[in-house]
Design brief:
- This protein is α+β, with helices and mostly antiparallel strands.
- The protein folds into four domains: 105 residues, conserved putative lor/sdh protein from methanococcus maripaludis s2 fold (Beta Barrel); 96 residues, Elongation Factor Tu (Ef-tu), domain 3, CATH 2.40.30.170; 62 residues, RNA polymerase II/Efflux pump adaptor protein, barrel-sandwich hybrid domain (OB fold (Dihydrolipoamide Acetyltransferase, E2P)), CATH 2.40.50.100; 76 residues, Helix Hairpins.
- 31% of the residues lie in helices and 30% in strands.
- Helix 4 packs across helix 8 and helix 5 packs antiparallel against helix 6.
- The chain is rod-shaped and about 170 Å long.
- It starts with 5 loop residues before the first helix and ends with a helix.
Length: 446
């Protein structure tokens, strides 16, 4: 027996197994411990949030750039389409409404009476000055010519005889064989016969002219319209309706109007000898039909509309301008050079100001008030508020407000923006080798 064992010394002592495996008395847990754990978690989240704000992840090549982009997306960065302000030229136009007007329009009529015998043209074709167009029966005028020539021959013979008698009377008067009165009478008869001969010559010329008028020629070069009279009809010089209409097509003009307030700028440049260019557009103002030059100005302002008429001449070899066609006209009066330009789609307006959303270097947007000058097409001139190279939001502005974090994309480029706006780093869509490795690292991290 082991005398050192406690059970040997004290029979009342519990066995060893009981003494070694007895559980400790239960402890009471306080609810305050959970509050401290929750408070520490909140402090950790808050500290991480402020740390990420002060130390944004760099966007660029490499794994850190891809991780930074993923982190921004995780915190709600809004993707937008952006554009950079740039230096460039922008034209200044005065616009107006106009109508295509031929420089020359001729209504061809008959100058003699007679039957329309022949038509030598096709409707709608181009004819040249001097081309034969119509034939009117010339035979009545040829008969009149023959009669007039016969009458002239008869009267010419009478005149010749009167002149012979006049010479004889002059000789006899010198011999006192005839009275002086008879000589004077014979001289007067000669003058009468001269007048009759001239009248006969006029009748001959008139008959020849009527024969010429029976062959109607084109007075100008232009396009013939539809035929208005058919062969076989009797036409008269007194008819009010034309036989056909010819309009000059090339060149052609456009008559348009501008407001009287715009007149000083135009007149100053026009009378100084500048050739002001004019563009003619179709009814929708989407398709440019032709480009011409300002030719002249009207001499008075229409008081009912407060506008002035101007004429511009156009080469129309492709026949895109048609007489009486309605066109929208733009008169170029100035070309502004080396100005700051932004896409018109980036401009926002409210009741108080005109502004843009400017993307800052930390990829946050700020509202920037701007003053605009000329707007032409998709571009607007910025007179103040922006500088070339500034990045402004073009689409996606409906989700933005002051300080919103964005991810900017540029038109025509793919992928997220690389580099901060204005930092000189390559924009979105640039495929450097570091960027490829960064995207692979980011993919593995996911």
């Amino acid at each position: 027996m082991n005398q050192n064992h406690p059970s040997a010394l004290d029979p009342a002592a519990p066995p060893d197994s009981v003494t070694q495996h007895a559980p400790p008395p239960p402890k009471r847990h306080s609810g305050r411990g959970w509050l401290w754990v929750l408070l520490l978690a909140l402090l950790a989240v808050g500290g991480y949030y402020f740390w990420s704000k002060k130390n944004p992840a760099p966007a660029g090549g490499g794994a850190s750039g891809a991780g930074g982009a993923a982190q921004k997306k995780g915190f709600g960065a809004i993707p937008v389409v952006a554009a950079k302000a740039r230096r460039g030229n922008i034209p200044v136009y005065f616009t107006g409404l106009g109508a295509v007007t031929p420089i020359y329009t001729v209504e061809v009529r008959s100058r003699v009476d007679g039957e329309l015998m022949q038509i030598n043209f096709k409707e709608g074709e181009i004819v040249h000055k001097g081309d034969a167009l119509l034939e009117i029966d010339p035979r009545p005028y040829q008969v009149m010519l023959t009669q007039a020539e016969g009458q002239l021959a008869r009267d010419q013979a009478i005149l010749d005889n009167a002149r012979v008698d006049l010479t004889r009377y002059k000789t006899l008067l010198a011999q006192n064989a005839v009275p002086e009165q008879q000589l004077v009478t014979q001289a007067s008869l000669v003058e009468q016969e001269i007048g009759i001969v001239k009248t006969d010559q006029g009748v001959i010329d008139s008959a020849k002219l009527n024969i010429t008028y029976s062959h109607i020629l084109s007075p100008i070069t232009g396009r013939i319209g539809l035929r208005l009279v058919d062969p076989g009809n009797i036409v008269h010089a007194a008819d009010t309706n034309a036989l056909l209409v010819i309009t000059q097509i090339d060149p052609i003009s456009v008559i348009f109007t501008i407001a009287e307030d715009q007149l000083p700028v135009v007149t100053q440049k026009f009378w100084a000898g500048q050739h002001l260019m004019v563009d003619a557009f179709d009814r929708s103002s989407n398709t440019k039909l032709a480009t011409g030059v300002l030719a002249t100005l009207d001499n008075q302002i229409d008081q009912t509309t407060g506008t002035l008429k101007l004429r511009a001449n156009f080469d129309n070899k492709d026949n895109k301008l048609f007489p009486n066609q309605f066109v929208n006209v733009r008169l170029l009066v100035q070309l502004k050079q080396n100005v700051t330009l932004i896409p018109t789609a980036t401009v926002q307006r409210n009741t108080q100001m005109t502004y843009v959303f400017l993307v800052q270097a930390n990829n946050k947007v700020t509202v920037r008030a701007v003053n605009l000058g000329t707007t032409e097409g998709d571009d607007s001139e910025v007179t103040s508020g922006l500088a070339p190279g500034d990045v402004v939001v073009m689409t996606g502005v409906d989700k933005l407000q002051e300080g919103t974090q964005v991810t900017a994309h540029f038109p025509g480029e793919t992928g997220a923006t690389a580099g901060r706006p204005g930092s000189g780093a390559p924009p979105a869509g640039t495929p450097p080798a570091a960027g490829k490795s960064a995207s692979k690292s980011a993919h593995k991290a996911r």
